[in-house]
Specification:
160 residues, alpha+beta, 10 strands, four-stranded mixed β-sheet, globular
Length: 160
């Protein structure tokens, strides 16, 4: 009885008498009129965001903008569609250490607030391996850094 009285005393001033309820949740008819994406649109967007690294009978999916360095000799290792059995990133990386490397990036580099170090890029060229950007061990998209001192021109991060 005490709890009910307390409940009424606390909530009663918050309730307006005769007020119409607000529609906070959209109705089903409003949701039904929204255009639905077709399968082709989804597939096209998916294909544009991801690339597949291919080696022998295995492949793994990585974000397209996670490729930091792609030497000409390894261009055939990057495909638009899966070829062979898909495996996890960790499994694929450990099986292909001879030509594949990863470079851990910071969150500010992922968000394009800080550029990748010039020495790091030179190191990629020196070793000649395909390099994937990772954050906490997994492949991640690295947005192009906008250099504020050069009228916001975009530095390319492995176009392809």
């Amino acid at each position: 009885m005490k709890n009910t009285l307390l409940f009424l005393l606390v909530l009663l001033p918050l309730v307006e008498v005769g007020a119409e309820p607000q529609k906070a949740i959209p109705t089903w008819s409003a949701l039904a009129t929204r255009p639905k994406p077709t399968g082709m649109d989804f597939e096209k967007q998916f294909r544009n965001r991801y690339k597949y690294l291919v080696s022998k009978e295995f492949c793994t999916r990585v974000p397209r903008q996670s490729i930091l360095h792609l030497p000409d000799q390894y261009r055939e290792m990057v495909a638009d569609a899966p070829q062979g059995r898909q495996v996890s990133w960790i499994e694929f990386l450990s099986a292909n250490r001879s030509w594949l490397r990863h470079s851990e990036v910071t969150w500010s580099q992922v968000l394009a607030k800080q550029p990748l170090a010039k020495e790091l890029r030179e190191n990629f060229e020196k070793h000649g391996c395909l390099v994937i950007a990772t954050y906490q061990g997994g492949p991640v998209t690295v947005l192009p850094f906008l250099d504020k001192s050069v009228d916001s021109k975009v530095m390319e991060v492995a176009s392809e």
